[in-house]
Design brief:
Length: 726
């Protein structure tokens, strides 16, 4: 007997939320009334469980859509103002903010499990489910990989030219050697950028090991077009740069045989110059130092000194600070504050009967020190003026927010001017200091009373690319230092080097499309950057910009370089700071090859301070109580902090596509698992050799829980605790 098909009766109440239909292949489907999504809708073969779960989610979403949103005041860039908007609870959004707070404020992961934080969140946002410290650590590392991927893509797509790097090394309290590498570049938007791209563990401070770490980092980031590497004067760095030059030659990205690759840190050289000079510090400065030391030695003495300050109505926010003999800038800070209180120190002799006898009892090289007299204060003020110049010069060389490479030659000339002025002083102590400084200046920056062309020639070229100076100011400096005859030779050498570099860039660029040159001369102003003094009448600054120094004749112009040099210079308004990057951005169509050279020249950092400053952060992250950081986690936290603090819309572009998400996830799993395996192996090694428990090794988690102690020399504190999350 033939079996008849009968229609299946839909008894479940879930069907009232769906429309049933058949697709093109004849399969039964169910379409949701709320979101329109199609699901499998064959009740006889599939059941209704999946439909029921989808209905619950959909109804919840519809219910939330009908809820009234909370109002919030969103802050704007204008201080004290905001924009009224709406707010809706989002667990993941708040969790991401918590991760950024942990990284930016250098907080231990265990902070999220502290009682105080839990109470605060219970009042601030009771709906937020606080993640465990393990989850926060994973989120921090995931954030690092996401930001790293975006930055790598930025280098590939929007980095305008070559990249200059600064690097320095450091030994942590774990006795691990770390190297920091910072990339400096001018983007296609003609803005100067600085990004920490590596904070990696290295095997030693030897040149070959440093080179391997730098080369691996550059290859990993795809940054093979390196323009310069700024390092300090350590001998190992000379070996590093020799090997790195060979590596760049293998990659085919070396410029003129690597002639311009090695850039010495100016701030480090200035430090050596001034430190040598202060070794000849006279008795006047020692008297001021001992007077400051005496006042700060006890609260009662400081109280009496404050009474003297009030008596003389001395109004100053600065207070006495004692210098550190190994840091010359602290000597400057000490003198800067102390000279303001000269009258108070004089009154202290009458106010406190112990002040003068105790200082007279102190001796230096069998000579009585005593209290500072009026002549001593005069000498201190003279020295402070010289130290102020070197202090401001260090600030200029260390800044990373504005271009500094085109300013070096001017400051270079001012160093010679101040050292010569010290050598011609009437004070014998100042003369001796000047002689010591001159010897150090000659070692690094001069040669037989003339410019030392063993210096990186880029420092001279950068001035030429300043449209206010071009070749005029270099020739002016050469004449001041070496005389007219030698200056002509040096200008010719500089011209030859410029032409070689120009020919290299010309060979790497396609022929420019024809375009009409800009007819408007541009003068752009920006916020001022630190200046090294206000002496406008100094001989090294006093030159006539209209003099015809080294200018090619108009009838012989051929190349783009010659056209630039012969074109009239820009007017230099002393009241406004000239923005050289904006000028080149405006004139990029007129000088397409030179504009690419300008990008690379103006990105060159004059000091290693951008990398050295990272060690201040790492020193807070890794101290004797918080020494259980895995090197990979250290790098993730240090780099992420730098990227978040200097975040820009250009570096937070989201990369679309499932393949990218899968690659990021795969990278995270592989690297993070390797870290955890390494931690387990390290802790097992401790158990075998020291009998420690893995549930309480050091009592610390990454980024600094302070729950552990550092007993027994801190041997246990260098391992990450592996207790499971609650």
């Amino acid at each position: 007997m033939e079996k008849t098909n009968r229609e299946y009766v839909l008894r479940s109440p879930v069907w009232q939320h769906y429309d049933c239909y058949k697709d093109a292949k004849g399969k039964k489907k169910a379409r949701c009334h709320y979101c329109g999504k199609s699901l499998v809708g064959d009740p006889s073969g599939n059941g209704t469980s999946s439909l029921g779960r989808h209905t619950q989610r959909c109804l919840k979403k519809q219910k939330e859509k009908g809820k009234q949103l909370n109002l919030e005041l969103n802050p704007t860039s204008v201080e004290g103002q905001g924009v009224l908007g709406t707010w809706k609870f989002d667990q993941e959004f708040i969790r991401a903010g918590l991760v950024e707070m942990i990284i930016l404020d250098e907080m231990p992961f265990r902070s999220v499990e502290k009682e105080g934080f839990k109470r605060f969140m219970a009042r601030a946002c009771p709906m937020f489910k606080i993640p465990s410290r393990r989850s926060i650590r994973e989120d921090c590392f995931r954030l690092f990989l996401e930001q790293k991927g975006k930055l790598r893509d930025y280098f590939k797509i929007k980095c305008g030219g070559r990249v200059s790097i600064t690097t320095d090394s450091w030994t942590s309290c774990q006795n691990f050697n770390y190297m920091c590498i910072t990339a400096h570049f001018v983007g296609k938007d003609w803005k100067l950028y600085k990004k920490v791209i590596s904070f990696c563990k290295i095997t030693s401070h030897k040149g070959i090991d440093l080179n391997d770490a730098i080369a691996d980092c550059l290859e990993h980031w795809g940054l093979k077009n390196i323009f310069t590497v700024t390092v300090d004067n350590a001998s190992a760095n000379d070996t590093t740069l020799l090997h790195l030059r060979d590596r760049l030659e293998e990659w085919g990205t070396n410029i003129v045989g690597g002639k311009y690759l090695h850039m010495r840190c100016i701030a480090h050289i200035v430090n050596l110059i001034v430190s040598d000079g202060l070794e000849e510090m006279g008795m006047s400065i020692r008297r001021v130092r001992e007077a400051v030391r005496w006042v700060r030695s006890s609260p009662s003495r400081l109280a009496k000194f404050k009474e003297c300050v009030e008596f003389h109505n001395i109004e100053s926010k600065k207070m006495l600070s004692l210098d550190v003999p190994t840091r010359w800038n602290s000597t400057y800070y000490m003198l800067e504050a102390a000279v303001l209180f000269e009258d108070a120190f004089s009154s202290l002799e009458r106010k406190d009967k112990e002040y003068k006898p105790e200082l007279k009892a102190k001796r230096y090289k069998n000579q009585e020190i005593g209290v500072p007299q009026h002549e001593d204060w005069k000498n201190a003020k003279v020295l402070m003026k010289y130290l102020k110049f070197f202090h401001d010069l260090t600030l200029i060389a260390s800044t990373t927010s504005v271009v500094t490479s085109h300013r070096f030659l001017r400051e270079f000339g001012r160093v010679f001017y101040h050292v010569e002025k010290m050598m011609n002083s009437k004070d014998d102590d100042i003369v001796r200091m000047g002689m010591k400084m001159k010897a150090k200046v000659d070692k690094y920056w001069s040669e037989k009373d003339c410019v030392n062309f063993r210096l990186n020639m880029l420092v001279y070229m950068a001035v030429v690319f300043d449209p206010r100076h071009k070749m005029n100011y270099p020739e002016h400096i050469f004449k001041k230092m070496c005389g007219d005859d030698r200056a002509k030779v040096l200008v010719k050498e500089l011209n030859d080097e410029l032409e070689k570099l120009f020919e290299y860039y010309q060979s790497k660029m396609p022929p420019p499309a024809p375009s009409s040159p800009s007819k408007r001369r541009v003068q752009v102003a920006t916020s001022s950057s630190p200046r090294s003094g206000s002496d406008s009448d100094e001989s090294y600054d006093d030159y006539d910009p209209d003099d015809d120094y080294g200018k090619p004749q108009a009838g012989h112009t051929k190349s783009e370089l010659e056209k630039y040099l012969v074109h009239p210079r820009e007017y230099d308004d002393a009241e406004e700071e000239f923005d050289v990057l904006k000028w080149w951005k405006t004139n990029a169509m007129r000088y397409p090859i030179l504009s690419e050279m300008a990008k690379d020249l103006f990105a060159v950092p004059m000091s290693t301070v951008p990398s050295e400053s990272v060690f201040s952060t790492s020193g807070r992250v890794l101290d004797e109580f918080r020494s259980s950081l895995h090197p990979k986690i250290v790098e993730a936290l240090i780099c992420s902090q730098d990227w978040l603090r200097s975040s820009s819309s250009e570096f937070v572009e989201h990369l679309d596509g499932e393949d990218d998400d899968y690659e990021d996830q795969e990278d995270f799993v592989n690297v993070y698992n390797a870290i955890m395996v390494d931690e387990v192996e390290r802790c097992e090694h401790v158990n075998e050799h020291e009998g420690t428990s893995t549930s309480n090794v050091g009592g610390s988690d990454v980024f600094g829980s302070r729950s552990g102690t550092n007993q027994g020399g801190g041997s246990n504190a260098s391992f990450i605790s592996l207790e499971p999350d609650e």
